[in-house]
Amino acid sequence: MKINMKINKDIKSYIRDLTELVWAYIRHRAAYPANALLAVQRELACNVFDSPDNCRGCDFYAPEMLLTYNEKGAMVPNHSVIKSIAKRYY
C-alpha cells in the first residue's frame, strides 16, 4: 500500500498527488485489501487506500468512484471526481 504522506499546500498539488495515488491503485489493485477504500485524513489531506478498520477519523470514498475507462477501454483515474473531492478539502 502506498501512503501519500505529503501535506499539500494547494489544491493543484493535492489533485496531482491524489491522481498519482489512484494510478498506483490501478496498477497494483491486487496488493490492496479487498475492502479497501480511499481514506482521507481531513486535517492533513493525507490519502491512502486501505481497509476502513485501519483508518480512524477519516472520510472514505469507494475506489469505483475514482475510476473510469478511456476510449480504448483502459481503466484510468476519473479526473472530475478527483477534482470534486479536492474541493472538499481546499
Describe the 3D structure.
The strands form two sheets. The protein has a four-stranded antiparallel β-sheet, with helices on one face. Strands 5-6 form a two-stranded antiparallel ribbon. The protein is 31% helix and 24% strand. It has one domain (3-89). It is globular and about 40 Å long. By secondary structure, it is of the alpha+beta class. It is built from two helices and six strands.
Mean pLDDT: 90
Structure summary, number of beta strands: 6
SSE string = EHEEEEEH
Give the domain tally. Answer: 1
- Work out the helix count: 2
List low-pLDDT spans: 1-5
* Spatial separation of the terminal alpha carbons: 25 Å
Give Rg in angstroms. Answer: 12 Å
- The percent range for strand residues is 15-25%
Strand count, sense and barrel status of the largest sheet are: 4 strands, antiparallel
Helix coverage percent of residues? 25-40%
Largest beta sheet: what is the strand line-up? 1-3-2-4
- Determine the structural class based on helices, strands and strand pairing: alpha+beta
Shape: globular
Q: Top keywords for this entry?
A:
2 helices, alpha+beta, disordered N terminus, two-stranded antiparallel ribbon, 90 residues, single chain, 4-stranded antiparallel β-sheet
